[in-house]
């Protein structure tokens, strides 16, 4: 398996401007975003079987369903109503509003289409321990660190649209059990993610005013890339290497 890049792979010189910060953030994305993980390459290249794709979708549901909780933590950090109004859109995008079922429901359409029982998916009983630990760590990070770091941790959305495009094309091409209908979550995020990412990027560029604050922004983004990366490490270890922990989803039991 590939190894997560170390700090030595990323320039660690002081960041003296907002423009330097933006360049560093994109460098982090180029070297640490989870599109580089071998599990994703297998997923998009048609190298997984249906059970392995089911395991990915099941575990990823815990992350998707936790995003509104994470974003509610962000909201709670700000007295500025304008920021709360802007950030609230993220909760509505995932939980849904009148006339829009929301991203969590669209993810359940995916797991339905993969043949997983919806009640089982929503229970999260079968997810990997590492999935739960990583996602909960992300929610706790947002709740406990500075508001600047909380917003900065969402900046992986800068890199998401390309990943979604690769996923839509690759999975539709390679898997006969995938249809355009079940890929609706990713199609919607092609529009939502850039909007969210630009707000967060502009926020950190404006409010990270010292080299130390800009470094904290970068470290928050690195933390988030690690949260995403370790979830794929766990999936690879369990469902490619075959080391499924007790109590976790076993595809043969849900065929």
Automatic annotation (TrEMBL):
Signal sequence annotation: none
Catalyzed reactions: 6-(2-amino-2-carboxyethyl)-7,8-dioxo-1,2,3,4,7,8-hexahydroquinoline-2,4-dicarboxylate + 3 O2 = pyrroloquinoline quinone + 2 H2O2 + 2 H2O + H(+)
InterPro entries: Haem_Oase-like_multi-hlx, PqqC, PqqC-like, Thiaminase-2/PQQC
Stored SUPFAM superfamilies: Heme oxygenase-like
Pathway: Cofactor biosynthesis; pyrroloquinoline quinone biosynthesis
Domain Thiaminase-2/PQQC: 25-233
Cited Pfam families: TENA_THI-4 (PF03070)
Keywords in alphabetical order: Oxidoreductase, PQQ biosynthesis
Alphabetized GO MF terms: pyrroloquinoline-quinone synthase activity
Domain of life: Bacteria
EC number of the protein: 1.3.3.11
The protein's role, per its UniProt record: Ring cyclization and eight-electron oxidation of 3a-(2-amino-2-carboxyethyl)-4,5-dioxo-4,5,6,7,8,9-hexahydroquinoline-7,9-dicarboxylic-acid to PQQ.
Family of this protein: Belongs to the PqqC family.
Protein name according to UniProt: Pyrroloquinoline-quinone synthase
Species name: Chelativorans composti
């Amino acid at each position: 398996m590939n190894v997560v890049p170390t700090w030595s792979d990323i320039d660690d010189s002081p960041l003296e401007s907002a423009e330097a910060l933006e360049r560093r953030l994109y460098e982090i994305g180029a070297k640490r975003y989870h599109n580089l993980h071998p599990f994703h390459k297998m997923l998009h290249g048609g190298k997984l079987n249906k059970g392995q794709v089911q395991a990915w979708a099941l575990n990823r549901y815990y992350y998707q369903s936790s995003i509104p909780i994470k974003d509610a933590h962000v909201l709670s950090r700000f007295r500025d109503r304008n920021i709360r109004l802007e950030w609230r859109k993220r909760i509505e995008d995932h939980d849904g509003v009148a006339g829009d079922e929301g991203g969590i429901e669209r993810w359940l359409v995916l797991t339905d289409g993969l043949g997983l029982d919806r009640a089982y998916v929503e229970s999260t009983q079968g997810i990997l321990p590492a999935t739960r630990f990583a996602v909960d760590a992300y929610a706790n990070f947002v709740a406990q660190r500075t508001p600047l770091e909380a917003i900065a941790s969402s900046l992986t959305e800068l890199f998401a649209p390309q990943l979604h495009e690769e996923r839509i094309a690759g999975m539709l091409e390679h898997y006969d059990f995938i249809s355009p209908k079940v890929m609706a979550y990713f199609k919607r995020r092609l529009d939502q993610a850039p909007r969210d990412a630009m707000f967060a990027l502009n926020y950190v560029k404006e409010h990270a005013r010292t080299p130390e604050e800009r470094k904290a922004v970068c470290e928050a983004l690195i933390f988030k890339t690690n949260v995403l990366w370790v979830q794929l490490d766990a999936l690879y270890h369990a469902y490619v290497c075959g080391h499924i922990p007790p109590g976790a989803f076993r595809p043969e039991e849900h065929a």
